[in-house]
Specification:
With 348 residues, the protein is an all-alpha fold. It folds into two domains: 269 residues, Up-down Bundle (Rhopdopsin 7-helix transmembrane proteins); 49 residues, no CATH class. Helix content is 66%, strand content 3%. It has eight helices and four strands. The strands form two sheets. The chain has a two-stranded antiparallel sheet with strand order 1-2. The chain has a two-stranded antiparallel ribbon with strand order 3-4. The longest helix is centred in the middle third of the chain and has 36 residues. The N terminus and C terminus are likely disordered. Keywords: Membrane, Transmembrane, Transmembrane helix.
């Protein structure tokens, strides 16, 4: 964060310098490189989603609008982060209004996380619809409550961060509440991602047994869910070890390697998450209209029945006629010749 004055009002037109990075310069260089690289990758996913939708490849793509919104939000988040890194690396003199970029970065990052949760929940609902023809009211209510709680936590965190940013004294009254709400958000997303990855494993097992056509889609969804879970496991470990235990011990230091790890590992996870969600939405669209979970259901084929006109129709109802060439030759001479209007019935 830029050097701030110790006052309670903000002069957004005043200029500040980012300051020398010193030994941390390599960290900002790595983060800027990965930010720009992720922006390029996400733009590729965004273009692919638009092309799939426009050209109608295999019936297009489901959940197109939330997927595009999530891609745009996370692309902007990394773009804003790259701008901040470049300002630090160039030691530029900027106005305090640059703090608005920090706010936009935090907003787009939280919005992208919420849209990822929304997409993963609705992909689960699509599998449930394919399995049972309906979504369980209890499951829908449970996911709605969890998503609502996560949304409220994100809104509170953003509000506290804005309050912390617009105050110019270093240890503002907003910093401690913002810190604990951020810890709560990371742990809450970890628990929610654990439930999603469990669902993904169950869907893979179910499709392997009953719906082989949807199994590749379930595997891709498992890949996306596991990437989201792995990223949240990382943030949960960092939060517990260094943001809670160390913070309560009043030792606010982190191992240097952890800063590099929390740059590279989330980058890999986000690539896996968006690639998995894009493929899942595309494959789910191609599966729409195809019956699922019916492989073990016995199929009924139409059979031709023969009815003797001199017998009661109730005695031979639905009796299949099996053709045997040898029997037809032997019985050709004794077969009665019927008049027109013989009742030949076909049971469909």
């Amino acid at each position: 964060m830029f050097t701030k004055r110790y006052s309670k009002t903000v002069d957004w037109s005043e200029t500040y310098r980012a300051g020398s990075l010193g030994e941390w310069r390599s960290l900002y260089e790595v983060r800027a490189a990965f930010d720009f690289l992720l922006v390029i990758v996400l733009l590729g996913f965004l273009i692919a989603a638009i092309l799939i939708r426009k050209r109608g490849m295999k019936r297009g793509i489901v959940l197109f609008v939330p997927l595009v919104m999530s891609l745009i939000a996370y692309t902007l988040s990394n773009f804003f982060s790259a701008i901040i890194d470049c300002i630090y690396l160039t030691d530029a003199t900027v106005k305090l209004a640059i703090e608005l970029v920090f706010i936009l970065e935090d907003f787009t990052d939280l919005f992208a996380l919420c849209t990822i949760m929304y997409l993963l929940y609705w992909i689960i609902n699509h599998f449930q619809m394919r399995s049972t023809g309906r979504v369980s009211d209890g499951l829908h209510l449970f996911h709605g409550i969890i998503f609502g709680l996560l949304g409220v936590i994100c809104v509170v965190e953003l509000a506290l961060y804005i309050g912390y940013t617009v105050t110019t004294y270093e240890y503002s009254k907003w910093s401690v509440p913002w810190h604990w709400v951020q810890c709560t958000r990371r742990l809450a997303f970890f628990v929610a991602s654990l439930e999603i990855v469990i669902w993904a494993f169950c869907l893979v097992v179910r499709t392997s047994r009953n719906d082989r056509q949807a199994k590749p889609t379930a595997l891709v969804f498992l890949l996306a869910s596991f990437g989201f879970f792995a990223m949240n496991v990382m943030w949960a470990i960092i939060t517990i070890q260094w943001d809670i235990i160390v913070y309560l011990g009043y030792i606010r230091t982190h191992p240097r390697w952890i800063y590099y790890f929390q740059i590279v590992f989330p980058y890999l996870c986000m690539v896996v998450i968006y690639l998995g969600m894009l493929l899942s939405c595309k494959q789910l669209a191609s599966l729409e209209g195809v019956d699922g979970f019916d492989i073990q259901t016995p199929r009924v084929y139409p059979t031709t029945t023969y009815q003797n006109p001199y017998t009661n129709s109730l005695d031979v109802e639905s009796r299949p006629m099996v053709r045997d060439p040898s029997q037809e030759l032997l019985g050709a001479g004794s077969r009665p010749i019927h008049e027109a209007g013989v009742d030949h019935r076909f049971r469909l």
